[in-house]
């Protein structure tokens, strides 16, 4: 089966998921690549057109062993016909647990036919210079793994004669999925003396938790703790100060230092 166009559909607040899927596409060597970035709120307001007779890479970060809730809810609205899917879950070097299974189930329920899945590592949302967690990933090795995964996908596509002949994809994970638990409302805070009101944090927030007219404040009730606002702030004015979040950061920094490598399933 020859695929001329690959559609990349991803949710990527801190850009690590986007980086991985771009490398996978290089390995696939499609003639055309179309990005459907679902990260910002405006990209999720209009209904997604039905995917038909194409190859789609569905990708999202892992939060507490599950696909990021915002991404999962949006992906659940998709509809597909005769469309192959590659599933990509990106986690911060702790564990991806049920995320890839959840993504596969979402894809199947929407009408996609998954042919490959991968769990890759990206710098953890809570990582910082002071408390690094998978700092700098995806790195050179990760990008190589992603391109190699893309090459394997290309080989598998060449062996597929008809969609009807595709066997169900098996990936790790359990159902019912892990209960991610519930944290009290909290969000990164702003050091007013450092904030320049540039608005970059408000622009990058995937759930509009930061008001454009007053970017120094955050809505704790809708913040997803992706920390994109912290990573993009040019003045380093935003940081984690909540005691619960700080305890989580310290625990992850201590327990997630051993390097984990990507896993792929075809």
UniProtKB/TrEMBL annotation:
Pfam entry (one): Fer4
InterPro entries cross-referenced by the UniProt entry: 4Fe4S_Fe-S-bd, 4Fe4S_Fe_S_CS, Flavoprotein-like_sf, PSI_iron-sulfur_center
Iron in keyword set: yes
Domain 4Fe-4S ferredoxin-type: 186-215, 219-243
GO molecular function, one term: 4 iron, 4 sulfur cluster binding
Gene3D superfamilies reported in the protein's UniProt record: 3.30.70.20, 3.40.50.360
Keywords in alphabetical order: 4Fe-4S, Iron, Iron-sulfur, Metal-binding
Signal sequence segment: none
Protein name: 4Fe-4S ferredoxin, iron-sulfur binding protein
Organism field: Vecturithrix granuli
